[in-house]
Write a structure and sequence with these properties.
One of its GO terms (biological process) is DNA-templated transcription. Pfam families: HTH_1, LysR_substrate. This is LysR family transcriptional regulator. The chain has three domains: 81 residues, Arc Repressor Mutant, subunit A; 108 residues, Periplasmic binding protein-like II (D-Maltodextrin-Binding Protein, domain 2, 3-Layer(aba) Sandwich); 94 residues, Periplasmic binding protein-like II (D-Maltodextrin-Binding Protein, domain 2), CATH 3.40.190. Helices cover 40% and strands 16% of the residues. The protein has ten helices and ten strands. Strands 4-3-5-10-6 form a five-stranded mixed β-sheet, with helices on one face. It has a three-stranded antiparallel β-sheet with strand order 8-7-9. A hairpin with a 4-residue loop joins strand 1 and strand 2. The C terminus is likely disordered.
Length: 315
Amino acid sequence: MLKDLEVFVAVVAAGNFSTAALDLDVAVSSVTRRIEGLEQALGVTLFRRGSRKLVLTDAGQFFLGTARNVLSELSEAREAMSNSDAELRGQLTVAAPGVFGRMHVAPAVQSFLRTYPGIEVDLRLSDRLIDLSVDRVDIAIRIGRLTDGELIASHLAPLRRLLCASPGYLEKYGRPETLKDLLDHECLTVSSKPTPRGWWTFPGLNRGAPLPIKGRLQCDDTETLLDAAVAGFGIVHLATWLVDERLRRGELVSLFPSEDGSAAKDAPAIHAVRLPGRSHVKKARLFLEHMRDHVGTPPYWDQTSSRGPEATRNR
């Protein structure tokens, strides 16, 4: 199967069987048999055969990312094993969204540096979408749905959002008994339009579209919305990794803990991504393992929201 994947990737790069055969130093018939066998094993057609050039089908385009990742992982594993005794030194570049990076990645980087004193980390915190190749980043943390099939993704945690309000707000305005009651409350939300996917959206409600909630305060900064909720200005729908600390301190109350949407098949998540074929493979793998251990299963920030304010962190 691995040889079939190598032939498939070579055919995509060459654009036809004959050129791929020359590149691989094999007969054209061998390339043809490999592709036909792969298509039969997968139960799909990978190429549309044209008169001049092969064109990937939708299934072929989808499978290409997987094939490249498998071959890259194998190559990197061989490299890591051949250099298993090499001393770990040098720089590792890690990128993460600003707030999440400050709250959850920076502490992991600090403990990583203590564990591996020969490694240096360049931690870059920014909310812009990092191009790993252009910005020469080894690992990037991505929150939401992944759209780049060229990247190797490692799942870190589900992305859960909770509806929260301060005890003061609930005492003054009452607690909503159903999700539809949110329409009668002050709700704090982002000012960007349309509403980001997953915000104020709940299974089986409003045909999957965000609830048309209203509120006097909108902002493009989630920390500001969090502070406003703590101050009693309304209800927020924010990620558990952001509200965890405030829940533990009793500054916020989770209103509908079971309505987070994380169980949906296509639910967004938190991933660490890297480019196949980049250097520093072993250091990147070590950091990913360290990050997974730091976050835990379930993530430490979800332990409070699932068990109540009395829960404590166990990192």
